């Protein structure tokens, strides 16, 4: 059907000579089957398939580790390990745990490590040691066909487990036929335990069970079997979920334990416990392990919720300003007390500096004013501490504050723009034309002008006469180039030709004319311009 539509299929490959017998040799991806060699392979779905042995293998071609290892380098190396089915899930767990350690790594100042900052020597040594063993993954050969030719029954067996660092689940295909029983790893999935919250083993075991069910749903979308069995080695999970009680297995018989703890690449190559599962899966079901678990009291289990009413009361220590204002019921008495204390402090400062102190008699009219400023400073430092530090360091302010144009004055008090000045003035006096007077005074203030100067607006120049004079289209136009673009040749296997696009824009009508030119020389330019010239059209 595709051939009749002009779409012939190429690159045929198979592990059977009968399938390729009717395919022309020029349409084969490899040589005929009797001429195949062991090293011949085909890349498919991110893996490498060897048709002669009908096995899959990984293609890991990592460069030598850099002399200085950084977070960016490590992430680049880990991303090159492509394992969509989780066939080397325990090794991927080791890489995930190392990646998690990099994300949690902090500098002496408490900041996260930058992407290109060299890692500590201890982590560099650990990564180089792990990097040197990743080539062993290329030695793994995985059978493509996980069942048997004449299968009588097929079962899916899911295992899940968790540790303090990670949790995961794996799936095995168990097929029975007249030739015997075969068990083969199908897929797996793993996740690392979160660092933000300290999770108990019981909660992580439940997360592993949920991950196992999620893995089952994904497998069932592709495979249709009549039986699926779940296994776990957690007595707590078997008590909470009664259906898991029959399928509890010891920890040493659970291959998912390898995912939760991680395995080095050199150890996983010949690890039969991972590739074919526990030995008892290869025998009849009545020989499978049956574990009798003791009864558990759910109220004493970790992560169990108790119905105990707890009331939390937080007593906050009052601040200095709160204690100060609470001592006085009258603001007039408060400001006079602050004025006396400020005069007393000035007297002490004069005694230390051995200068003449001011007479300690009745307050002047300026003393209560200084008390008001002192109370303003105390209130602003408590309520606007972050904004005060940003104003002092000339950093960007929040949106709700920057429009008020705050300014720090010499007396340490933050003052804002003319609106507040006008409001304060009208509390005692009504000045005729006060708005214009305050605005004029504010704009003439050098301190206020420096805090937010007015930028000069550049005037826009007039358009040239050619843009506004009525003329015929393309009598006056502008020209620009874009590209390069590559033109595919009609002849097969010939390299694409580089070309450019000339754009003509009419000054009068704003019309656009586009032409394709072969290069940037003058001769290809004059050819389209002469074709589109109005003189030639006449």
Question: What's the layout of helices and strands?
Answer:
Elements: H1 17-20, E1 42-44, E2 47-50, E3 55-57, H2 71-79, H3 89-103, H4 121-131, E4 142-143, E5 151-162, E6 166-177, E7 180-192, H5 201-220, E8 227-232, H6 235-240, H7 256-261, H8 265-268, H9 272-275, H10 320-326, H11 331-353, H12 366-383, H13 385-392, H14 399-402, E9 407-408, E10 414-415, H15 418-426, H16 434-444, H17 446-451, H18 465-468, E11 477-487, E12 497-506, E13 512-517, H19 522-531, H20 534-537
Parallel strand pairs: 5-8
Antiparallel strand pairs: 1-2, 2-3, 3-4, 5-6, 6-7, 9-10, 11-12, 12-13
Helix pairs in contact: 2-3, 11-12, 15-16
Describe what you observe in this structure.
By secondary structure, this protein is α+β, with helices and mostly antiparallel strands. Among the domains are: 145-295, Ubiquitin-like (UB roll), CATH 3.10.20.370; 345-451, no CATH class; 470-537, no CATH class. It contains 20 helices and 13 strands. It has helices at residues 17-20, 71-79, 89-103, 121-131, 201-220, 235-240, 256-261, 265-268, 272-275, 320-326, 331-353, 366-383, 385-392, 399-402, 418-426, 434-444, 446-451, 465-468, 522-531, 534-537, and strands spanning 42-44, 47-50, 55-57, 142-143, 151-162, 166-177, 180-192, 227-232, 407-408, 414-415, 477-487, 497-506, 512-517. Strands 1-2-3-4 form a four-stranded antiparallel sheet, with no helix packed on it. Strands 7-6-5-8 form a four-stranded mixed sheet. A three-stranded antiparallel sheet has the order 11-12-13, covered by helices on one side. The protein is flat. The model is unreliable at 242-246 (pLDDT under 50).
């Amino acid at each position: 059907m595709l051939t009749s539509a002009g779409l012939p299929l190429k690159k045929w490959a198979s592990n059977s000579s009968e399938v390729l017998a009717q395919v022309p040799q020029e349409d084969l991806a490899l040589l005929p089957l009797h001429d195949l060699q062991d090293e011949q392979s085909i890349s498919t779905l991110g893996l490498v398939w060897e048709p002669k042995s009908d096995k899959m293998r990984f293609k890991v071609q990592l460069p030598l580790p850099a002399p200085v290892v950084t977070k960016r380098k490590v992430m680049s190396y880990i991303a090159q390990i492509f394992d969509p089915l989780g066939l080397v899930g325990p090794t991927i767990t080791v890489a995930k745990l190392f990646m998690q350690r990099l994300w949690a790594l902090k500098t002496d100042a408490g900041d996260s490590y930058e992407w290109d900052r060299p890692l500590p020597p201890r982590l560099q040594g650990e990564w180089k040691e792990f990097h040197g063993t990743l080539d062993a993954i290329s030695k793994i050969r995985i059978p493509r066909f996980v069942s048997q030719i004449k299968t009588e029954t097929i079962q899916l067996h899911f295992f899940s487990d968790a540790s303090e660092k990670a949790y995961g689940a794996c799936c095995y295909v168990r097929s029975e036929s007249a030739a015997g029983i075969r068990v083969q790893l199908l897929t797996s999935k793993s996740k690392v335990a979160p660092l933000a919250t300290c999770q108990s083993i019981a909660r992580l075991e439940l997360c592993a069970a949920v991950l196992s069910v999620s893995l089952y749903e994904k497998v069932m979308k592709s495979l249709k079997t009549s039986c699926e069995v779940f296994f776990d080695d957690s007595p707590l999970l078997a008590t909470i979920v009664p259906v898991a009680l029959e399928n509890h297995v010891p920890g040493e018989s659970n291959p998912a334990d390898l995912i939760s703890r991680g395995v080095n690449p050199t150890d996983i190559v010949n690890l039969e416990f991972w590739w074919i599962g526990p030995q008892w899966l290869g025998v009849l079901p009545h020989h499978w392990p049956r574990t009798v678990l003791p009864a558990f009291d759910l109220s004493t289990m970790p992560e169990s919720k108790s119905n105990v009413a707890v009331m939390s009361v937080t007593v906050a220590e009052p601040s200095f300003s709160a204690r100060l204002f609470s001592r006085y019921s009258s603001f007039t008495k408060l400001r006079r007390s602050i004025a006396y204390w400020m005069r007393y402090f000035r007297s002490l400062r004069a005694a230390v500096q051995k200068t003449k102190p001011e007479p300690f008699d009745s307050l002047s009219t300026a003393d209560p004013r200084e008390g008001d400023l002192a109370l303003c400073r105390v209130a602003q430092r408590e309520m606007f501490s972050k904004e005060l530090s940003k104003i002092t360091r000339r950093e960007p302010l929040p949106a709700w504050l920057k429009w008020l144009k705050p300014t720090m004055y010499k007396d340490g008090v933050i003052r804002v723009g003319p609106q507040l000045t006008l409001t304060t003035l009208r509390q005692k006096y009504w000045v005729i034309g006060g708005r214009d007077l305050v605005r004029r005074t504010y704009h003439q203030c050098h301190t206020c002008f420096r805090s937010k100067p007015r930028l000069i607006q550049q005037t826009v120049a007039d358009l040239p006469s050619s843009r506004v004079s009525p003329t015929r289209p393309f009598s006056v136009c502008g020209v620009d180039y874009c590209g390069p673009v590559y033109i595919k040749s009609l002849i097969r296997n010939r390299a694409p030709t580089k070309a450019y696009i000339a754009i003509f824009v009419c000054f009068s009508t704003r019309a656009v004319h586009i032409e394709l030119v072969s290069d940037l020389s003058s001769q290809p330019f004059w050819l389209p311009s002469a074709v589109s010239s109005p003189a030639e059209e006449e």
